[in-house]
Amino acid sequence: MKVLVTGVAGFMGSHLAEELYKRGHEVYGIDNLIGGYEDNVPEGVTWWQADLNDFDAVEGMFKGIDLVVHSACTAYEGLSVFSPALVTRNTSHITTVALSASIKHGVKKFVHMSSMARYGKQDTLPFTEDMIPKPQDPYGIAKLAAEQLVANISSTHGMEYVILVPHNIIGSRQKYDDPFRNVASIMINRILQGKKPIIYGDGEQVRSFSFWKDVSNPLIIACETDVANGMVINIGPDEESVTINELFKIVSKIMNYDGDAIYMPGRPQEVKHAVCSADLARKVLGYETTTNLEDGLTEMAEWIKIKGVKPFNYHLPLEFITEKTPKTWTDQLI
After folding, report:
1. Neighbours of 4 (CB within 10 A)
2. Tens of pLDDT, residues 132-154
3. DSSP string, 132-193
4. What is the pLDDT of residues 146-182, one digit of tens each?
5. CA distances from 200 to 42, 245, 276, 281 (A)
6. Cβ-based neighbours of 224, under 8 Å, separated by 6 or more
């Protein structure tokens, strides 16, 4: 197949492009480099540095494509509270552009990567696909809107689609000089800089973290078969969840760090407990967790060490500042 991966220079997009290429597909990519690194793009992949917000500039790149894997997104949940125009434009609007270009050029299938932010605050855990989404921030709202656009436009015009919901992916190629997201890589990069890790709130937020390989395997099945067509499916480990405080302890062990953390006020609209069920993924896509959290973090830490320490780059604007805006961002403390 001819496959187009959006966000191909990003963390997960680059891994997916590489896996698809290894499986014999002809792989192309688009990325604007907001959230990735140019050297993430794997060899053998033809790609364009372009902005998916511009339909006229990118629609021709979809010509002749059989499958679109849409992983491009400014996945900034916390930042979206203070830069909603930026985040929603680069989440829901770019999805509309990718869908329009896909329909125009007769793409057969559209695989969309969503986010567990779609669930928001629920009364029970873990999150299951049959729950009514209750997103708590502009990012989560935009991701849910993007899902609805995928289902609506694809169904109307006869394009197959799958919506996958990975959560908190870790591993090599993740952007680690970004002060606005990726808690584990921020911790690792700060420790390498001789700084104390930063934790928001009391650190008792509960999360599950997915190693990239465990996400790519079921996603490839969703791409190459029709078993998940028309479905929304969570992908991620539900047998190993941790608090951010526990995450800090594991990172400290890996990095041989014996210091403490800096605690900052909690960020508004942050969901306290966010863990998804993987039962449907196991049933439909053969999902299984093959890499535990400590091993996944170790792989990521080793990759960051090889890449080299980078100063944190405040590359995205705060559209407005209020008394709720984290001082870590306004005063560039990270």
Report:
1. 31
2. 999 999 999 999 999 999 999 99
3. PPB--SHHHHHHHHHHHHHHHHHHHHT-EEEEEEE-SEESTT---S-TTS-HHHHHHHHHHT
4. 999 999 999 999 999 999 999 899 999 999 999 999 9
5. 35, 10, 22, 31
6. 23
Distance from C-alpha of 310 to C-alpha of 313, rounded to nearest angstrom? 8
Contact 252, 211 (CB under 8 A): no
Q: Are 181 and 78 in contact (CB under 8 A)?
A: yes
Per the omega criterion (within 30 degrees of 0), is the bond before 126 cis?
yes
Q: Dig out the tokens for 193 from the structure.
A: 């800089």
Using CA of residue 106, residue 16, residue 241, residue 235, what is the dihedral sign? positive
Going from the N-terminus, what domains does the chain have, and what CATH number goes with each?
2-170+209-235 (3.40.50.720), 183-206+238-275+290-329 (3.90.25.10)
pLDDT given for residue 271 in this prediction: 95
**228 in Cβ contact with 285 (< 8 Å):** yes
Distance in angstroms (rounded) separating the CA atoms of residues 324 and 262: 18
**Which residue numbers are catalytic?**
139
Residue found by looking up tokens 């990012």 in the block:
139
